[in-house]
Specification:
heterodimer; A: alpha/beta; TIM Barrel; nine-stranded mixed sheet; about 35% helix; disordered C terminus; B: about 180 residues; mainly alpha; about 5% strand; binds iron/sulfur cluster
Chain lengths: ~350, ~180
């Protein structure tokens, strides 16, 4: 494998099925979706991840990963057995009381799970009452897990983290060091006007210095319910064909990570982040409209890959930035051997003989 | 008793008295231990723990049971000579030693395979677990081998989940059969 950023996290999108159907869910999840990642595929992916020395963490997400029930316990246990930490991202639907939450979390805790991420906010609460987040977090903390609660943030929201922290169950644990509650921007997936953000939170030339490089690209490998692998865990990843790097049916995680690590634009995203690339592209083609449009960096990233003007600038001018970007990448990591990915080869499946199922569940 | 219920009892923090007694006797009586390794079903039955089917222990389970009952292991552990303990385990119990790719040491883990083909295997693993539980009690502090203890706990949790999956599948098949009739 080339030197450079190495994946530390494997995210398994176990299914796009969810008990909720939030507007602007990044995977358009809802209860009627049947497709799921089979247990043997999850275990195989975990085994492969365990063979990569850089891998540290497996995140179970979806859709709603708790709908896997006992299979989730088996998969979490496999992570523990292979020395990988694990985390579950959930809407908390299962936490109907502290006791019910404890009953669901206890086997997972014994299997080695040490962190749950609970999502809530105006959209989530149309399907999952906020009490369940409080019960889930309280049960997790009492078991000795970390509980992270992520609250949707958009301009006209009615629900804030304060509303959660004032719940009696939360009051008892609000100062606990294992509890983290924070806001995260909610993002429009199809209709851009369906989510509004305050003008101060949108990127422009005055605040672009505050926009960071993308920490996820080439660091997180995502496996979706079809066994397809992505090169980041961005909200818009499924809408960016270039972020789909292959399938576990055709290649191993190691092969896919190596191929993705040679893609200059991904390296550039890791070095500067999408907003800075857009801003630079607009200095070459001033028709590129990027200011005061994006709150979330995955939104900016989608535009970067989508916008024909940006693509054109990148295709013709990337060499002007190559040395600088690679030098900084090399400083941060180690010697990369990056090439601009040829469109015809970017999605070439990599042959692999690894097809046997690790486990016949 | 259904085997899956037995497993839950065997691996719980607070095992029933019969299990505790067996665990203690296995730890203190080497001849019973050897009999148990050879014929676990018979020994379980003698102690009032009937299981359906004949339990067969694999080489790894056998080695693990012997390891946790080896006075030298306990002595080295309690004296904090972890390097000597590793060397002893690596030397005497090769079947349960795997090499951790991130570590130059060979690490001993109770690596039973959680993939259960039949419930009899599940019971065999649980049987191994009771012996471990008995040994763990005697180990005053498990901190330095907590990774191994964590792995064991994960395996037991996975095992229970597997049994639940089998139970659910059974229930599904029964429902289907009833509908066909
Ligand atoms: S809870 Fe999460 S996965 Fe489910 S629909 Fe809402 S945003 Fe999507
Ligand atoms: S900014 Fe782009 S590369 Fe980074 S996580 Fe978002 S979609 Fe993925």
């Amino acid at each position: 494998m080339n030197a450079g950023r190495k994946p530390t996290t494997l995210t398994l999108l176990t299914s796009y099925q969810c008990t909720a159907a939030c507007e602007n869910c990044c995977f358009a999840s809802h209860p009627g979706i049947a497709e799921k990642l089979p247990l043997w595929r999850m275990l195989d992916a975990i085994e492969q991840a365990a063979e990569m020395p850089s891998m540290k963490l497996v995140v179970f997400s979806g859709g709603e990963c708790f709908m896997l029930e006992d299979e989730l316990v088996v998969a979490v246990a496999r992570c523990t057995e292979r020395g990988l930490a694990s985390r579950c991202v959930t809407n908390g639907y299962w936490a109907k009381s502290v006791q019910a939450a404890h009953a669901r979390l206890e086997p997972l805790y014994r299997a080695g799970l040490r962190e749950i991420n609970l999502s809530t906010g105006d959209h989530h609460q149309q399907f999952v009452p906020v009490e369940r987040i409080a019960y889930g977090a309280a049960a997790a903390i009492r078991l000795g897990m970390n509980a992270v609660v992520v609250v949707e943030r958009e301009m006209d929201r009615t629900f804030h983290a304060q509303g959660l922290l004032s719940h009696p169950e939360m009051a008892a644990i609000r100062d606990h060091p294992n509890l983290i509650v924070f806001d995260s921007p909610w993002m429009a997936m199809e209709d851009r006007d369906s989510v509004r953000h305050g003008p101060a939170s949108l990127t422009n030339h005055l605040n672009i210095h505050r926009r960071a490089p993308c920490e996820s690209v080439l660091d997180t490998m995502v496996v979706n319910p079809r066994g397809e692998v992505g090169a980041c865990c961005g909200l818009t990843r499924e809408q960016i064909p270039e972020m789909q790097i292959g399938s576990l049916q055709d290649a191993t995680l190691v092969e896919l990570a190596e191929a993705a690590g040679n893609d200059f634009l991904k390296i550039w995203l890791a070095v500067e982040g999408p907003e800075h690339i857009l801003a630079w592209a607009s200095t070459i083609d001033p028709r590129i409209d990027w200011e005061n449009r994006f709150n979330h960096h995955c939104d900016a990233c989608r535009a970067l890959y989508d916008d024909a003007l940006v693509r054109d600038v990148l295709a013709h001018h990337w060499r002007e930035r190559r040395d600088d970007v690679l030098y900084r990448y090399r400083l941060a990591h180690q010697k990369p051997e990056a090439e601009w990915p040829d469109q015809s080869t970017r999605h070439t499946p990599i042959a692999s003989s690894r097809q046997e199922a690790i486990d016949h569940a | 008793m259904h085997d899956s219920d037995l497993i839950r009892k065997l691996v719980s923090d607070n095992p029933p008295e019969k299990v505790r007694n067996l665990s203690e006797r296995l730890a203190s009586d080497p001849s019973l231990l050897e009999k148990f390794v050879d014929k676990p079903s018979a020994v379980l039955k003698d102690h009032g723990l009937a299981v359906s089917g004949d339990i067969k222990l694999g080489d790894r389970e056998k080695a693990m049971i012997r390891m946790f009952s080896d006075p030298r292991v306990i002595e080295l552990y309690n004296s904090g000579k972890i390097d000597d303990l590793r060397a002893h385990i690596t030397d005497k119990y090769r079947e349960i030693v795997i090499t951790n790719p991130g570590d130059t040491h060979a690490v001993a883990v109770a690596d039973f395979d959680v993939a259960i083909e039949v419930e009899v295997v599940a019971v065999a693993v649980a049987v191994a677990a009771i012996v471990v539980a008995g040994a763990a009690d005697r180990f005053s502090k498990l901190a330095t081998i907590e990774a191994e203890a964590g792995i064991l706990s994960a395996k037991v949790a996975a095992l229970e989940a597997r049994v639940n999956l089998v139970d659910k599948l059974d229930a599904k098949v029964t429902r289907l059969e009833q509908r066909i009739r």
